[in-house]
Amino acid sequence: MSGAARIAARVHVEAALAPGAGIELGVGPAHHLRNVLRLQPGDLIGVFNARDGEFEASIAGFAKGVARVTIGALRRVPRPEPDLWLCFAPIKRARLDAMVEKATELGVSRLVPVFTRHTAMERVNRERLAAIAVEAAEQCERLSVPDVDAPVDLAELLGRWPADRQLIVADESGAGAPIATALAGLAGPFAVLTGPEGGFASGELDALGRAVFVRRVGLGPRILRADTAAIAALAVLQAIVGDGGLAPRFVGQGQS
Amino acid sequence: MSGAARIAARVHVEAALAPGAGIELGVGPAHHLRNVLRLQPGDLIGVFNARDGEFEASIAGFAKGVARVTIGALRRVPRPEPDLWLCFAPIKRARLDAMVEKATELGVSRLVPVFTRHTAMERVNRERLAAIAVEAAEQCERLSVPDVDAPVDLAELLGRWPADRQLIVADESGAGAPIATALAGLAGPFAVLTGPEGGFASGELDALGRAVFVRRVGLGPRILRADTAAIAALAVLQAIVGDGGLAPRFVGQGQS
Question: What are the tens digits of pLDDT across the range B113-130?
């Protein structure tokens, strides 16, 4: 599909997509297309979801805050996307937002906020995180958008953990195997778990160590911030046992 | 050294460090210790540099905006730290700052701003980036702080490149080998090069492809933001051919 038409933006939509259909984009994307990107009727964007794939869409018009678009040619058929969870202790807003953005770029399918002993944050704004995930998915050429779960306590997470999913725990105590060693030869599905800035409590590390589905891993000799640890673990996991062997199908936005 | 005394902060200093010596910390760290961390005379911090290692230091007093400390016991002997460069096209401030912070955490020894065809930023504030690198080094238990070079043009960088250093180029065009494959069996020293948000121009990719020291690598099927690409490439490199096999020596700050 390298001959696909150039598009000015990608917009994730829940609506069913098929050539010839007309759909409405809500206030958020409509504002972005009209007032930030300064697009006009007739301009071409991409619309996508994981179920139907990605289509060209021509802007039909803006009215009452929304945008109407007409669906055109298929740009990309749906294909399986990674099944990879990030379980994370909530951290301060700017770092959390960046972590969610980057986790989405790195192919996470599910974001699970986890309260731990040293977690300083008491609330998680799921709507804000979901909006960041949508924006990152639009930007990075994904077809899917990660789900953002309701927060759970660590004990609850471990108590109902699906036994066939490997939980890769970023452990700065030095007790974990180096991540490249730990991952070599492991079969997924996978999840990554990162703690709060204060780290896991020793009792939490003990509980994690007793779970058969847990692999405690080290990320090198430096003490990484929580957000850095999450991004680094996801990047290494995708490179070694994930979809790092695949290449982008095409680059459809931005400069050439 | 797991019996080392608990310290409230780590401060990078240029001064020579030896037990019994008294040194002065400048306005920036003094303000942080006194007004942010609320430390008092008698409280214990760590002071460090790559040449002498890390020492306990007792706060002797605050006066005229500076802090005086008395050097105590050695906490950590100097040891070799990674020789790893990050060459990066400057991007917008918030993302650039985060990239420098995370590159420091991931062990980069030299930060080289590189102007490319599609680089939108025209200036680089080296002092701000150096301050961010110092703060990140203090936080992540490094002994060294990465150097921040003056910006260079891409052609100049390639023209004077040291032939024995592998330049790992994050290439979203799909032409690069998967990063894990490309790195397997490669010997360092290494540098990572990332482009601006608009990517490399095709002529730049051609020039990079002709250089014998360049390895163009792919980071998976999604299009990563420039900052994400830099962090991901560094994390994977450290895990596969860097110091990812080492563990933290001790965790000397924060909660237990």
Answer: 999 999 999 999 999 999
**Residue of A218, A208, A203 whose CA lies nearest to A117:** A203
- Closest Cα in chain B to A105: B224
Residue length of chain A: 256
Identify which of A255, A211, A209, A218 has the alpha carbon closest to the alpha carbon of residue A236.
A218
Q: What is the DSSP letter of B37?
A: S
Q: How far is A15 from chain B (nearest CA, A)?
A: 23
The whole-model pTM stands at: 0.94
Q: Is the dihedral of CA B189, B195, B196, B197 positive or negative?
A: negative
Parallel/antiparallel/unpaired status of strands A66-76 and A22-25: antiparallel
Residues of B within 8 A of A197 (CB-CB) are 254
DSSP state at residue B65: T
pLDDT at B2 over 90: no
Task: Determine the Cα–Cα distance for residues B173 and B168; give it in Å rounded to an integer.
Answer: 14
CA distance A107 to chain B (A): 8
Q: Comparing B25 with B256, which gets the higher pLDDT?
A: B25
* pLDDT over 70 at A43, yes or no: yes
Task: Compute the count of residue pairs across chains A and B with CB atoms less than 8 Å apart.
Answer: 187
Could you tell me which residues come within 8 angstroms of residue B7 by beta carbon, excluding any fewer than 6 positions away? B44, B45, B46, B56, B75, B252, B253
**What is residue A63's DSSP assignment?**
E
Average pLDDT over residues B48-70: 96
- What proportion of chain A, given as a percentage, has pLDDT over 90? 89
CATH number corresponding to A84-241:
3.40.1280.10
What is the amino acid identity at position A233? A
Superfamily of segment(s) B10-76: Hypothetical PUA domain-like; domain 1 (2.40.240.20)
Contacts of A251 in chain B (CB under 8 A): 172-173, 199, 223
Q: Which of B172, B235, B248 sits opposite A236 (nearest CB)?
A: B235
- pLDDT bucket at A80, cuts 50 / 70 / 90: confident
Q: What is the CA radius of gyration of chain B?
A: 20
Q: Where are the domains of chain B?
A: 10-76, 84-241
For residue A141, the chain B residues in CB contact (below 8 A) are 221-223
Contact list in A for residue B198 (CB cut-off 8 A) is 254-255
pLDDT value for A4 = 66
The answer to whether A10-76 and A84-241 have equal CATH topology is no
Residue B109 corresponds to which tokens in the numbers above?
A: 């020894």
**What confidence tier does B254 reach under pLDDT thresholds 50, 70, 90?**
very low
Nearest residue to B243 via CA among B83, B5, B49: B83
Q: Is A98 exposed, middle or buried (0-12, 13-18, 19+ CB in 10 A)?
A: buried
Residue A79's pLDDT is 87
